[in-house]
Design a protein that fits this description.
Elements: E1 2-10, E2 13-18, E3 21-27, H1 29-33, E4 43-50, E5 55-61, E6 67-68, E7 73-74, E8 78-84, H2 92-104, E9 108-114, H3 123-132, E10 137-140, H4 149-156, E11 160-164, H5 171-178, E12 204-207, E13 213-216, H6 261-268, H7 273-288
Parallel strand pairs: 3-5, 8-9, 8-11, 9-10, 11-13
Antiparallel strand pairs: 1-2, 1-4, 2-3, 4-5, 6-7, 12-13
The structure holds guanosine-5'-triphosphate, magnesium ion (MG) and zinc ion (ZN).
């Protein structure tokens, strides 16, 4: 038996990286029976079936430190959330949804704004302003002009990082710039509807020359917060924590409660009104069990 990490999963095969190289593995039937699905990023134990051909079987799935459903990936430490300032137009409610899901998994979060070479409406500064108030690092980049590629590289050193964001924002393009050995497929953004064409089909872990592991993933166009509790949501808007003085303390849902410090902070601009409104929208959505975006 040897330990390894699932780098890629396609058509029922798992590609497991071990100290003895990469093995193509099937998973034991028992996982399916127990409704367990191995995920890219899973730490596993495999038995070798054919050393020559590098074929094995996944025998054990170790406990996950973190798990995302969209994109489907396990044991990530940090999420680089990638949105373009144009083509496609950034959808901040979708960005906030992803932040909530990543916060719940305790991931470190960095926001990457791509295609700044196309920014003719100064959206870069606007979005940067909103999210810097939260405390998240925001890095504007362009794979065209190579602006700030180095800063993104810095974020990838000695860490296990996922690139996540909508289709067509330039995740794979950016990764190709970051490591000259990567030859990831990239796709056009549809001229008419300005949406990506889902070029990347599977999540895949890639080893970087500089050390560190990064996952390229398929773009998503919607995220639901179905299994998040309405009382829990506020914990994932981390800037609310910095505001003291809600009359009901930690019980305050920052909605209609009197003397709510968070609501006041959104009025004075101490925290972003846009983020606050986004919180209220998501809160209502969770309540109504609605599934949008
Ligand atoms: N102008 C400009 N175009 C870019 C930039 N980065 C990527 N693109 C273009 O955007 C399109 C989509 O890029 P991809 O890298 O395939 O996007 P993706 O996020 O990987 O998309 P999916 O794999 O579908 O999730 C391609 O036509 C790229 O050439 C950029 O910085 N500036
Ligand atoms: Mg891609
Ligand atoms: Zn409050």
């Amino acid at each position: 038996m040897i330990d390894g990490r699932i780098m890629k999963g396609i058509g029922g095969f798992y590609y497991v990286d071990t100290e003895d190289g990469l093995y193509e593995c099937r998973a034991r039937g028992i996982f399916r029976k127990n409704k367990q699905t191995p995920l890219v990023g899973d730490r596993v134990q495999i038995s070798v079936v054919d050393e020559e051909k590098k074929i094995g079987v996944v025998e054990t799935l170790y406990k996950r430190d973190s798990e995302l459903i969209r994109p489907p990936i396990a044991n990530i430490e940090k999420a680089l959330i990638v949105f373009s300032v144009k083509n496609p137009t950034p959808h901040l409610s979708l960005l906030d949804r992803f932040i909530v899901l990543a916060e719940r998994e305790n991931l470190e979060i960095v926001i990457i704004l791509t295609k700044v070479d196309l920014d003719d409406e100064n959206l870069t500064e606007k979005i940067k302003g909103i999210y810097e108030l939260t405390g998240y690092k925001v890095i504007p980049v362009s794979s065209k002009t190579k602006e700030n590629i180095d800063k993104v590289k810095e974020e990838l050193k000695n860490s296990v990082v996922v690139f996540a964001g909508p289709s067509g924002v330039g995740k794979s393009s950016l990764l190709n710039e970051i490591d000259s050995e990567f030859k990831l497929q990239t796709g056009e953004v549809s001229e008419k509807i300005k949406r990506g064409k889902h070029t990347t089909r599977h999540a895949e872990l890639l080893k970087l020359q500089c050390g560190g592991i990064v996952a390229d993933t398929p773009g998503f166009s919607s995220l639901t917060l179905d299994d998040i509790d309405e009382n829990e949501l506020k914990d994932y808007f981390i800037e609310f924590d910095e505001v003291d003085s809600c009359r009901f303390g930690n019980k305050c849902r920052h909605e209609n409660e009197p003397s709510c410090g968070v609501k006041e902070a959104a009025e004075t601009g101490e925290i972003s009104k846009i983020r606050y409104n986004s919180y209220i929208q998501l809160l209502n959505e969770i309540r109504q069990g609605k599934r949008r975006y």
